[in-house]
Amino acid sequence: MQRICDKLHNGHWIYLYDDDVPILLPCLYCRYTHVTGLSVIHEKKRVEVTGVFEFLLKEVEIGGYAQYERGQQLGLFLEWVEEYGHPSVTLAWHTALPAEFINEYINEYLIVKLQKSEVVVHKAINSLRSYYNWLTHFFDNNYKKIFVFAEYRALARSNNKSTLIVKYLLPATRELLYRHTDSLLEEIVLRNGGELGCRTSENKGFYLDDFQADGKKREGLRSLFNKLRESPDKEEFEYHLPSFVAKYGSARTLYISRAHLLLMGRYYNTERPESVSNHLLVSNSTNHTKGEVISKRYGSATFSKTLKKLLKVMSENPEAYTGYQTLDEANVYHHLRHSFGTDIFYDLCVAAKKNFESITTESRVYIETARRLGHKVDGKHGNQTTKIYIHACGEREALLRDVVSA
């Protein structure tokens, strides 16, 4: 797609498909803000007679810069949608996107991946709220709740600092986090991030029975549990993460260690509640969700809760944690996955006898790391992803030196 701030003819942003056909509704939205100088907000109002609150959509005035900013941020979002690479997330259907995808853009992409400051994030939120409120107000689209997740707020604040937090967590640090979880379910979910490189949403992709995916029958976890018993010397087991749960539709093979698979088996036999679900990881909540597959955000919420608990323990017993990596309240679940990817990248560099700073997007090291993580290797942000891992390898070496010298 193309996005152009056409000051000469239209006086506002326009968006075009690659064949120069206008993307109609975003163009009409920018026309609306430019001509009327208005934006649609969602307002909560207390009804004096009943005392209850009602929610309504209301047009408010905005200036020329705010009009420009809303159009720019909308264009950046549309570019992300175009790059997403999943059949249900396309420019043609962007108006019908569930709120979870829009919030993924705000939280996972802007805050975690691009490390954007609170100011930039709030500009994006205001712009996307304005656009989707406009669609609701004039075209009766479903209302979208767009916001920063609670577990990402500290990270967004930390992105304002001149020195960003370290996103790489040493193996010993990850083990500390695993040990401070409150259940086998929570430990498995965190280990899935730190040992398998799973995204928080991909924890929904572990199936008990054999299943059909990506053109063939795949082994479920019950089959792998049988292999555990049949092959006592086998240390690694392959599991197919299906495309319908993986981001970008990128199916990939997960290499589960024997210890991790044993933990999954123990959870299945001792802690997992009765459930008709074919998912391994199900909610043990006392409410109506008990026995249902865990939510996409379960990993993020679990990490946030465990991190707060560990930070409190470390602050109360500083002498017991001398030599450990310093954690920050802004660390998030994605940093487990990032650490896993960094380790893969670093180890492949060592095996290939390559300096990590010499790696390019065409290198076998980069391509294999992308494969293990389910990244797109042909995306426009490939160079940026490579730079992130090169920087993280530098952080990894520095942290290891600090731990050794402590």
What does this structure look like?
By secondary structure, this protein is mainly alpha-helical. It has two domains: 2-158, no CATH class; 171-405, Orthogonal Bundle (hpI Integrase, Chain A), CATH 1.10.443. It has helices at 24-36, 64-83, 99-113, 118-139, 153-158, 171-179, 184-196, 221-230, 258-270, 298-316, 334-351, 364-373, 382-405, and strands at residues 2-6, 12-16, 38-46, 53-61, 211-213, 216-218, 236-241, 252-257. A two-stranded antiparallel ribbon has the order 1-2. A hairpin with a 5-residue loop joins strand 1 and strand 2 (12-16). Helix 7 (184-196) packs antiparallel against helix 9 (258-270) and helix 11 (334-351) crosses helix 13. The longest helix is centred in the last third of the chain and has 24 residues, at 382-405. The termini are far apart. The mean pLDDT is 92.
**In CATH, what is the class of the largest domain?**
Mainly Alpha
Physical arrangement of strands within the biggest beta sheet: 1-2
**Count of individual domains:** 2
Number of strands: 8
Look at the structure and give the mean pLDDT. 92
Distance between the termini: 52 Å
Shape-level CATH architecture of the largest domain:
Orthogonal Bundle
Q: Indicate the overall shape.
A: globular
* Radius of gyration over all CA atoms, rounded: 23 Å
Strand content is: 5-15%
Largest sheet: 2 strands, antiparallel
Structural class designation: mainly alpha
**Helix and strand sequence:** EEHEEHHHHHHEEHEEHHHHH
